[in-house]
Amino acid sequence: MDRADIVHDNFLQRVKDRQLPTGPRPSGPLAAHQAVQLYRSGCLSRALDRQSRKMQRAGQGFYTIGSSGHEGLAAIAAALRPTDMAFLHYRDAAFQIERANQVPGQTIAWDMLLSFASSSEDPTSGGRHKVLGSKALCIPPQTSTIASHLPKAVGVAYSIGAAKRHAPEHQALPSDAVVYCSFGDASANHSTAQGAFNTAGWTAYQSTPLPLLFVCEDNGIGISTKTPEGWIAAGFQPRPGLKYFYANGLDIYETFRVAQEAAEYVRLRKRPAFLHLKTIRLYGHAGADIPTTYLSRAEVEAEEAQDPLLHSVRLLDEAGALAPDQSLAMYEEVNARIERIADEAVTRPRLATARDVMQSLIPPKRPCRPTNGPSDAARAAAFGGDFKSLDDPQPLGRILNFALTDLMLEHGEIVMMGEDVGRKGGVYGVTQKLWQRFGPDRMIDTLLDEQSILGLAIGMAQNGFVPMPEIQFLAYLHNAEDQLRGEAATLPFFSDGQYTNPMVVRVAGLGYQKGFGGHFHNDNSVAVLRDIPGLILACPSNGADAAAMLRECVRLAREEQRLVVFLEPIALYATRDLHAEKDGAWMTSYPALGERIPLGTVGMHGAGTDLAIVTFGNGYYLSRKAEPALTAAGIKTRIIDLRWLSPLPEDALIAAIAGADRVLIVDETRRSGGVAESLMALLAERVDIPFAREVSEDSFIATGPAYAATMPSVQSIVEAAKTLVARA
Ligand SMILES: Cc1ncc(C[n+]2csc(CCOP(=O)(O)OP(=O)(O)O)c2C)c(N)n1
Ligand SMILES: [Mg+2]
């Protein structure tokens, strides 16, 4: 027998027999009518859990992770405001249901059942997932990757204070909001969670405002692995910067009282708090999990005897709020109602085609106030002594610095964050002087944790900022990559475009730093970025393009809410010369304000018809260096700079190679999973031109004299070109 049915029968029998679990009498500020409402929210949550299991058995529902045992969460919702952004643990249905009571016009049971049924009319995800969430209730839906929502909760909490000082055009939260973020006891151990607690504490320790309420729902277990007795309290009571509260989540009176105290502490003091909430988990982890396979029957039954709804029946009786018979009637009425609504919900349409599913991969555009660009006076004041250098040829790194300055002048909602981006101006000086020009509010020197940097950016974006986080080196993106892959990129997808986190992530990367750094400062793989649906990956090869592309990237983020990664080739930051020492041919002047390079367009040098070299980044630079040797060999060449590595500028590329007899792909990323693989597939599918590739080996990069040995060189490009052209 399904334990959900055992728990249900148990409830009916025990209430009838008045065999209710014992506990302290109701006390605290919860009024009788509120207590009844919380109990009703708990009943609704419970009924929905049972219904989801029935729907799954009938082939009408597809996922059953439930909230039974966690009904006390309703009391936490009651202690908060519906404008307090809430990042919910997957067991917080009662929270969402109770919050719906605070917002007029809600049809929460109907909405949640549509989600269970994966109906395209589900107002949260449009039928893409059974997930908690609601735009109207200020509950962004969450992925199920444990703890990945914690870094962005820190980011949103930080954004509330930042928005007071620089209100962004698309600000979403009131200035007295708090952020709520919940998770399970096992999840609290995850390094992502630990990073977020540390960042919250680190921030509060310096008295920076961070109105954030963490709630750890401690049911003592994570799937089948028990949390050691006392572990959560021992770990979180002494944590610097994080005030610890405890409540028994089986008692709605106590939970409400403590949650109110904690919420008031967070709201008034603008400091983070950690509410440790004792709960129980009824009927195992999720639908297919049978708890008696790893717990003794006695243990399971002892938990079931502590059913929080039974506790509520007792508490309501003792408070004189509702007699047990009335509680029983309410429970049954709610169950019957949910069954009736479910019968209707399963008849609603579902997603069917790839097009349906993919509709929300790309977020909707949003209206933005027009800007006329920064005034001359503002530019003169900001640039200071650099103002007169703007027209002189400069290397890429310096041009980027100019572009960032103008973009920050033009858009007050741009904020940058990263290790050493502020006071120092970045490891390679790209953000130099921005801290002095725009202040520490907009140039945030973060602690050393890439997940927190990206989480801060995601969170600030959700409150209307346009963040430009910096990852110091491409190799250091990987330990935080899920913040882009699992969080930022998926949010529009499964919130049906209702929640977005537009940003431009600047990453310094790729190889060819002369003998410096080895593989951890010279990472030449972008495969993990290129396969993320909806993500735009840009990679300039020279200063003028870099500025014009960066402006387009910011436009894409600001106006089209896109997630953009701007990959900066470190080896070209300071490169000045092309063919000969002191020729200065790789320096460019700073493009006029307003000049942009649109997404999907390529660059082209030359118009030769013997050979088209298709390349980007350092490969473009090396190909340009190879050009005289190719000309000397009688090979008339054109060199195409892809600029956009994902999505590939397919049509522009096909147009650019038209009329060429051969195509050579020069790709500094690796043979396996490198950009060339996609380019070759594209050429094979769309044109009838012979092609070849010159790529990096499947290797990491060495430091010292062999620093470029595994990657394309001028010589290898020339040889590959000659071989290809000589091919019959
Ligand atoms: C990063 C990650 N690893 C593993 C999982 C699989 N998983 C889902 S829930 C869970 C246990 C979570 O336990 P806890 O945090 O105590 O929450 P509870 O389910 O008890 O409420 C695990 C291991 C996951 N979702 N994400
Ligand atoms: Mg748990």
Give a short synopsis of this structure.
The protein has 728 residues and is an alpha/beta fold.
SSE map:
Layout: H1 3-17, H2 32-57, H3 73-78, E1 86-87, H4 93-100, H5 108-116, H6 150-165, E2 179-184, H7 191-205, E3 212-218, E4 221-222, E5 225-226, H8 231-236, E6 243-248, H9 252-269, E7 273-278, H10 297-304, H11 308-318, H12 324-345, H13 354-358, H14 376-383, H15 396-410, E8 414-418, H16 434-438, E9 443-445, H17 450-461, E10 466-471, H18 482-488, H19 490-494, E11 503-509, H20 518-521, H21 527-530, E12 536-538, H22 543-560, E13 563-569, H23 570-573, E14 603-605, E15 611-615, H24 617-632, E16 637-641, E17 644-646, H25 650-657, E18 663-670, H26 675-686, E19 691-696, H27 714-726
Parallel strand pairs: 1-2, 2-3, 3-7, 6-7, 8-9, 8-10, 10-11, 11-13, 12-13, 15-16, 15-18, 18-19
Antiparallel strand pairs: 4-5, 12-17, 14-16
Helix pairs in contact: 2-4, 2-5, 2-11, 2-12, 5-12, 6-7, 6-17, 14-15, 15-22, 17-18, 24-27
Bound molecules: thiamine diphosphate (TPP) and magnesium ion (MG).
Thiamine diphosphate binds next to strand 2 and strand 4.
Structure overview:
With 728 residues, the chain is an alpha/beta fold. It is 41% helix and 13% strand. It has 27 helices and 19 strands. Strands 9-8-10-11-13-12-17 form a 7-stranded mixed β-sheet, with helices on both faces. β2, α7 and β3 form a beta-alpha-beta unit. α17 (450-461) packs parallel to α18 (482-488). The protein is elongated. It starts with a helix and ends with a helix. The mean pLDDT is 97. The site of magnesium ion (MG) has 6 residues, from β4.
